[in-house]
Amino acid sequence: MSINLALILTLLTLFSGLVVALNKFVWERGGRESDGSASRRVLVEYSRSFFPVLLFVLIIRSFVFEPFRIPSGSMMPTLLQGDFIFVKKYAYGLRLPVTETRVLETGEPQRGDVVVFRLPADPSVNYIKRVVGLPGDEIVYERHQLTINDEKIELNQHPDATPLEPRFIEKLGDRTHEILITNAAYTRNDGVYRVPDGHYFVMGDNRDNSRDSRFIQAIPETHLVGEAVRIWMHMDGLSWPRWDRIGSKIE
Known about the structure:
There is one protein chain. By secondary structure, the chain is an alpha+beta fold. It folds into 2 domains: 60 residues; 176 residues, Umud Fragment, subunit A. Helices cover 22% and strands 33% of the residues. The protein has 3 helices and 16 strands. It has a 7-stranded antiparallel β-sheet with strand order 1-2-16-5-6-14-15. The protein has a 4-stranded antiparallel β-sheet with strand order 9-8-7-13, with no helix packed on it. β3 and β4 form a beta hairpin. The chain starts with a helix and ends in a 17-residue tail after the last strand. The model has no long low-confidence stretch (mean pLDDT 92).
């Protein structure tokens, strides 16, 4: 069972704020603050202490940045399992916590952006992939070659590629990034895809090991969480952190 941290944080903030407001406008004015029970006085003190902190965390997490951990290798070599990243929540609009209702438009995904989104089949699960297709695009994916609206996307072998790490360089829009092609014969779910209005076609950089829009279809705009922008820590299991990845910009 997944834990809805946004709901828990919102409820705690509302509860502590309500206690602070009741104390200020009801109990203090009625002269009953000092006459209250010991449990109520403790509740008021804790609420006074925690409400500003909870409110600050709720605002930052809901509207500015939210941390995520990369759980798999589907975005290799760009992101590794064990990377901890910051996601810019305001990149594609300000949304209310819990309901995810957009209240202010601030931008739209661009081709090549790395985005976190809620899985349409199970919105409690977050995925991270790269935006390949925009609304209205026609995507052709055949033998690891992307063609978007009849234009072949530039794909070149990385100068440091090896048989054990078959990396390639791909250019999507203004983004130049690396991808991983581990099986040259892999053609599963090659085909032609048309992106509906209000949707985005996403793919993992580990092209032969990614459950993306080739399998789960295009992602509705309403399910976007934000843009992945920076790695702030890497720790996988009990191994030492990889200091060289800390602070890296996500290309």
